[in-house]
Amino acid sequence: MSQDASPPASRPHPSRRRIIADGVGLAALFAPVSALAQQAPPAPQAAAQDARNLVAASAKVRLRPAPAPETEIWAFDGAAPGPVLKVRQGETLRLNLQNRTDKPLSLHWHGLRADHTMDGVGGFNQEPVPPGGQFEYRLTPPDSGTFLYRPMLVGGSSEPAGRGLSGLLIVEEKEPPAVDLDLPALIGDWLLGDDQKLLPFAADGQDGAAAGRLGSWLTVNGKPPPLPVKLPPGSRVRLRLANACNARIMRLRFDEMKAFVAAVDGQPTETFEPVRGQLPFAPGTRYDVFFDMPETVGSAVSVTALIGPGVPLVRFTSNGAAKPARPAIAGMPLNPALPAAVRLQDARRSEMIIEGGARITPENKLDLAGLDLAKPWTVNGGQGDPKGKPLFSVKRGSPVVIGITNKTAFLQPFHVHGHCFRLLHPLDDGWEPYFLDTVQIPEGKRLHIAFIADNPGRWLISSTVLERFDRGLWSWFEVT
Question: What whole-number distance in Å separates Cα of residue 375 and Cα of residue 358?
């Protein structure tokens, strides 16, 4: 298998058609959905489970197929990715992070609408966990779904994540849909040398001013792709796809299968088939995809990352006695805790203008001339500052609209912490019928997002490319 490791500057610019599909035109990938139910009161909190330990420490794993040597990485409980953490909706998960690495750590729960003191941004809403230290996270998820956990520290996220620290948190539905296999698939990206060792992490290198730390080798659940899965014909599969890469922005293609997306960024939507069988897949993005295995023994379907000639990630093969016929795939219940509407006319409006970064020359090369590599990005002329002024401050329950303008030469994926949002129509006269917590803003484009600021605390709006986040590409807002 060949995996393309060339830097983005050596590739041609994406076409206008692809830019639209990846960003502002994301709505074209989604079939219409019905209006969501009115906001429901939160479920009563269940008793907390006993705390379980999650140990971050050095480990050795074989990332490439044998006879390639093992690579020294950082792992949770000896594995990369870390264990799939599971909790029932409304229950409390107690997790004791033990840091046995030589760098500070904290864990962000990407997409979780939890208490802001547990959001896990070291240096912003918690003190980083020092080497040899520990911290207990207490999470009571109000929503079911698929969530990502990975390191997030002001100025120090890239290295611990790039060394392998990531994992999935699954909040189980009270009545999960019936499937024959519920398969998490966490996609990682490793920058390896010819000796299979991780290449050095440069604090002020050009990665932070450009596309980020793009790896040379993808893994699926820490294993070389494609991940092989054999199932009886007719089996129903729930595939939970999550992008835990530091910087790798890609598209996914579903080959020879009739796939239905049932949740985006953890939030259920009415099922839809991806247009042209493809979906955009930036760091932090998650999809819950359902499909049925082919009826013919030996038939194969796969999910492919569109990098270079394509990298097959998971390959499913029909094998054995056929399963009994099932009803047609149906969507999961929509989340009643999210608002059916946002009163745009009453919204607190704010603007984010993203500037800086390397330029792309007409020869499609990086131009870093005159750029401060330690502070290459700005938001509204400045950089993220935990002690600075917030982008805005609103009362709990206020509607918010944020216009985000990308004046850089790179696609910019951004994540709103502690909230789910709507992507507005270009004319600001409505919104697309799905919720997101991570959105991609194409080069030279402007879009708007809207949400109800219903979660009190201090919250980041941050680049999901960790090298850019470490260089200050973030802002924050406050809900009182």
Answer: 11
Contact 117, 125 (CB under 8 A): yes
Residue 192 phi, psi (nearest 5) = -115, 145
CB atoms within 10 A of CB 308: 12
Please state, as a whole number, how many other Cβ atoms lie within 10 Å of the Cβ of residue 40.
10
- Of residues 1, 5, 22, 31, the one with CA closest to residue 245: 5
Per-residue model confidence as pLDDT tens digits over 93-149: 999 999 999 999 999 999 999 999 999 999 999 999 999 999 999 999 999 999 999
CA atoms in the 13 A half-sphere facing the CB of 168: 28
Q: Which two tokens stand for residue 373?
A: 């590599």
Contact 185/220 with Cβ under 8 angstroms? yes
Q: What dihedral do alpha carbons 332, 338, 341, 346 form, nearest 10°?
A: -160
* Burial class of residue 6 in the structure, from the number of CB atoms within 10 Å of its CB (0-12 exposed, 13-18 middle, 19+ buried): exposed
- Integer Cα distance of 162 and 215 in angstroms: 9
Q: Please write the tens of the pLDDT for every residue from 150-202.
A: 999 999 999 999 999 999 999 999 999 999 999 999 999 999 999 999 999 98
Which residues are registered as beta bridge partners of 382? Answer: 379
Distance CA(143)–CA(114), nearest Å, equals 9
Count of beta carbons in the 10 Å neighbourhood of residue 273: 15
Interatomic CA distance for residues 244 and 184, integer angstroms: 12
Bridge partner list, 441: 412
The pTM is what?
0.90
- Determine the distance from the C-alpha atom of residue 15 to the mean position of all C-alpha atoms in its chain, rounded to a whole number: 24
